[in-house]
Design goal:
heterodimer; A: 309 residues; alpha/beta; Rossmann fold; 2 domains; globular; B: 179 residues; five-stranded parallel sheet; three-stranded antiparallel sheet; 8 strands; 26% helix
Chain lengths: 309, 179
């Protein structure tokens, strides 16, 4: 096993192919560990990790915390709603105060794109980006690719369509980088209003017809419409969105092949995906959740191994 | 670099038979015993001994597992070289069983210390024994000794003991290598 080429995980953009390979191989070992009766290893018992969530999260926060605890790290949790951020403290001050309590690693979710990069330049700790605005969500993209690899054998050469609200999605951008790095073909599909204007510059195909997109792909990654990030109306109604861009069993059965369905969660059942699809064998949504813990253990372990004593 | 043969093919074969017989003496039909090869190199020795039990000594249903100790080691973030993990392959629990750890070379004892912790993830065994092909005595950092030992070797720290297996390195042999 070699080392990661980076000291922080700020985005997939900063990783190379070997890094992703190393993370996946390490995650394979951790996946075996978390299926043992005692799901814990003592590797990180002298490491303290702060989870700083300046934005709401359930799954990612839980997944990171579980990964950290299964590696035996000490964990401190912080959420912006209950903190001095509300009293006007700056990001660097907040983090430096936490670091002065001898924290080695920071997992941060923040509404501003680039918050992780900014922090990595100003504080002396390993930073993991758990989502920065509509920019990147690297661990989600890693676990998505890992789940594709697990289901289909490899990512290289596979056709993946990302469907839905690409405009407000950090998952989409990280997935595009990760999939392309591994040699997959990527397409985005959604209403024009929810596709960034220059998305084609990333080397992805653009499609507005869902059925055509699904017929093209091996894997469809369904994204949620992020109403909380929308200040204007991007489509006439949820009903119309569902009719145009929702995946249901009937649509899947009408395709010329069986495709794999993914969703990063949280699911809006009956909008982008119906319950019978979400709960079907074609969907690997719960595998993604389980793989999330293994991937995060691998990332934390590999970054921690670079923190010298 | 100079190297000296410690054991040749014939000697390795005699020792493997002796170690296997010693195991039979203590574990009879192996119904309550599990053999655990310590990854990475103990795996090969464990597989050899298992094959001998099955083919030469007509034992049935030998439970063999391979345990990786990487995440339980005490030198994480201390060594210059990143720690390389291997596969753990344990499709049984060790609760209430007699466990025999099998490794090719016993040196400082730190790997075995890690294995003693790692095995707890698979239950609480009745007891644990240690079988090793080469025992580098006088090199121990911890109070750990083998129950079954192929050959005791006095080697200084700068020297390396290398165990070769016919399946992988083309011959069964043990060398003492001086850099």
């Amino acid at each position: 096993m070699s080392e990661l080429s980076v000291n922080h995980l700020l985005g997939i953009k900063y990783l190379n192919k070997q890094d992703i390979q190393l993370i996946f191989e390490t995650a394979d070992h951790f996946k075996e560990v978390i299926n043992r009766p005692i799901k814990k290893v003592p590797s990180l018992r002298d490491i303290t990790i702060a989870n700083l969530f300046f934005e709401n999260s359930t799954r990612t926060k839980l997944s990171f915390e579980l990964a950290e605890k299964r590696l035996s790290a000490d964990v401190v949790n912080f959420s912006a709603s209950q903190s001095s951020v509300k009293k006007g403290e700056t990001l660097i001050d907040t983090v430096n105060n936490i670091l002065s309590m001898k924290v080695d690693m920071v997992v941060m979710r923040h509404p501003s794109p680039g918050a992780g990069i900014f922090l990595s330049k100003h504080v002396n700790a390993s930073i993991i980006n758990a989502g920065d605005g509509a920019h990147e969500h690297p661990t989600q993209a890693l676990l998505d690719s890992y789940s594709i690899r697990e289901r289909l054998g490899e990512v290289k050469g596979k056709k993946v369509v990302i469907v839905g609200d690409i405009l407000h999605s950090r998952v989409a951008l990280s997935n595009i980088y990760a999939l392309q790095l591994q040699g997959a073909e990527v397409m985005v599909c959604g209403p024009r209003t929810l596709l960034p204007k220059y998305i084609g510059e990333l080397g992805v195909q653009v499609e507005t017809n869902l059925k055509k997109a699904l017929n093209w792909c091996d894997v469809a990654n369904m994204l949620r419409v992020q109403n909380e990030r929308m200040d204007i109306s991007y489509f006439p109604s949820t009903r119309e969105y569902k009719q145009q861009y929702g995946v249901n069993k009937e649509l899947l059965n009408s395709l010329n092949k069986e495709i794999t369905i993914m969703h990063p969660g949280p699911i809006n059942r009956g909008v982008e995906i119906t319950s019978d699809v979400a709960d079907s064998k074609q969907a690997i949504i719960l595998d993604q959740v389980q793989n999330g813990v293994a991937i995060r253990m691998a990332v934390i372990y590999l970054l921690a191994s670079k923190i010298k004593q | 670099m100079s190297q000296k043969v410690l054991l040749n093919q014939k000697e390795v074969n005699i020792i493997l038979h002796r170690l296997t017989c010693q195991l039979i003496e203590n574990h009879d039909d192996f119904s309550e015993t599990v053999l655990i090869g310590i990854q990475p190199r103990g795996k090969f020795l464990a597989e050899r001994i298992t094959n001998m039990l099955l083919t030469n000594y007509n034992k049935k249903d030998i439970k063999l597992g391979h345990l990786d100790i990487t995440f339980f080691r005490d030198d994480f973030r201390r060594s210059d070289k990143p720690l390389e993990a291997n596969t753990t392959d344990m499709n049984f629990m060790v609760e209430g069983k007699n466990v025999v750890f099998i490794d090719d070379v016993l040196y400082t004892g730190r790997s075995i210390r890690a294995a003693l912790t790692a095995i707890q993830s698979f239950g609480r065994p009745i007891g644990i024994e240690l079988l090793t092909l080469i025992d580098r005595r006088f090199s121990r950092h911890l109070p750990i000794q083998p129950d079954y030992s192929g050959r005791q070797v006095d080697a200084i720290n700068e020297e390396k003991v290398k165990v070769n297996w016919a399946e992988f390195e083309g011959e069964d042999s043990v060398y003492l290598i001086n850099n």
